[in-house]
């Protein structure tokens, strides 16, 4: 196992946090709502398919 100095470790953490904190919440909300809508449409379709 390679020993990473604390400076390199902090730089890696800072890089990770910089890239992950830049994620826009608006896109996550839109993605979640789209997935919910797809699930609702799939549930209605399967319901009609089984009981229609």
Using only C-alpha atoms, the radius of gyration works out to 22 Å
Global structural class: mainly alpha
The overall average pLDDT, rounded, is: 78
Largest β-sheet summary: none
How big a fraction of the residues is strand?
under 5%
Number of separate helices: 2
The shape is rod-shaped
Regions with little confidence, pLDDT below 50 for 5+ residues: none
- Give the N-terminus to C-terminus distance in angstroms: 61 Å
> What is the N-to-C order of secondary-structure elements (H for helix, E for strand)?
HH
What's the arrangement of secondary structure elements?
Blueprint: H1 6-20, H2 25-51
Protein model, in words:
- There is one protein chain.
- With 52 residues, the chain is mainly alpha-helical.
- It contains 2 helices and no strands.
- It has helices spanning 6-20, 25-51.
- The radius of gyration is 22 Å and the shape is rod-shaped.
- The N and C termini lie far apart (61 Å).
